[in-house]
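Trying the structure run again after the queue cleared.
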Amino acid sequence: MARHPWAGRAWAVLAALPAVALATAPPAAAAPAELVLPVSGLAVTLPEPPPTHHYRVTASWSLAPGSGAFAGRDVIDEIVGDEIGMSLWLVPGPAAGGSCGAAVAGSGVSLAWQADVVLHEQLWIARGGELTADDGEHHVAMAFCAARPGDDDALLAYLVIPDRVPAADSRDALLAFAASPVVAAVTRAWRTRHTGPAQPARLTPAGGAAHDPARELRLARVGATLTPPADGWVWVVGEREKAHTDVLYRVAPRYPERSVEVLTTGLATCAASPFDAALTAKGGPPPTGLPPGFSPGPTLLVGGAETVTVCKVVGDRALYFGIQGPTRVDDVAPLAPLLVAVADAVAATPAPPSLPPKVGDTGGFAMLWYGVTGILSWRDVEETPEGLPAPSPRFAMGFDFGGLLGVDAGWLYRFHLGFAWDLVHGLSEAADRTSSAARYGGSAVTAQIDAGYGVDLDESSRLGLLVGWHGVSGPITENSGLAASLVYSRAPVDDSVGVFARLTPIQPLSANGRDLFSPLTAEVRLFFDHAAFMAGLELQWIDTASAAAREIPGEGFALFLRIGSGAVVR
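Done. Tokens:
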């Protein structure tokens, strides 16, 4: 997934927003009715103030020169007479440094005290001290950070209070925060994701001139540069660690979250989806509100969330958009200005080299399986002075357990353990070469361990070459040594079918002193219903007739039928 453009950025800059691309909402006297905070997009119902009090709501945001890093805040002032009695600054976004502890440490509030408190049904990390504003004034302030479980979203709140409350007095400061009905209303809106329409890009700067949000957004992977549309929102290009696509984030209003991923294909048609079938969700109506010339694409399941896609043919290529939010985005009409702006920019740009037909990488995964095994084996062996058995089918039943681990860098690791009993002769005669010797009868013991490297084919598939040690005793041979295997894995996504396949030729370095080669092995396992059910088939074949130095020429095969269960972790 894309790295959010705010991730890891300190919030201390918000104590004094630079006057670069600065937009500020004009003060608005708030009545006890629902109003939408421009930067966060939260819809807040402020309480009725006392007769001598009133509320003033403002907002500001900026883009840093060069990097384009976004900083913004909503401000709710409680005015007592002609003075500010208390000021609440709200900064939504990912927790700087990856945690609320790091966020309050980088908030710009000097440390007089710090504590974890539960206020307004929300756990906050609180830090109290002083805050130095851009005018050089020192203000008593507190920084409170609340994180949302399950994602990187957080809310940083600054409570700037009169100097009559000592900075070192945590009890009075916390009581002021806890007693504030404004804080309670904001917390409730944030916890419930209660939002409303906002257009922070159309805010008027303090000087009164119209704010011009025009700037360039560079889509490096698509190879286009566009001017953000006049939709009233603030868009930035996100950083990507594994880039097959460009991603645009709406940073203001922050809620509800919106991101748009963009990719192009070398085919001038929207009929050939570039997305892996394993990521395609079943069912669900197509999105509405598409601009002219756009068509709906498949709905994808990425990280358990539904991503709506739309497509437009631009020249000799198809342009795909993946639209994400906290919930499925059914109406894309509000995003139409951005979609059209990107399409127009791509149309004005020469086509870059075509991307691969499939995009993405598997990331890390683990596939485990266990179950019962049925074996049918046959070996063409003539009677010898040692009394080896004549050709006849053998039947065995047993168990097997194994797994495949794939790490994000491409490495693969596999292990397998299996054993089975001859249904006719049993283990009591497994060592008897005249009846069911392990290498000529039905009983079998297998141990294998491999490691190697794979190449991602798409978001769920990997092809790799593994080398390791394989030991086998029965049903058609007995040997151990170094083995090389070609493996293919397809980790199941949601209700898709998972696949594991392996091809192992004769071991190049079999153990010395053995009479027989190790077998050629082909194996496939299928995983159904989120890997709850596993079915597999394995074929082993051996033919040593051409090896004159071998004591026991002959041909044999073994068919393994497997049924069991499994598990997949991604």
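The longest strand covers residues 365-379. Worth checking whether this holds up in the mutant runs.
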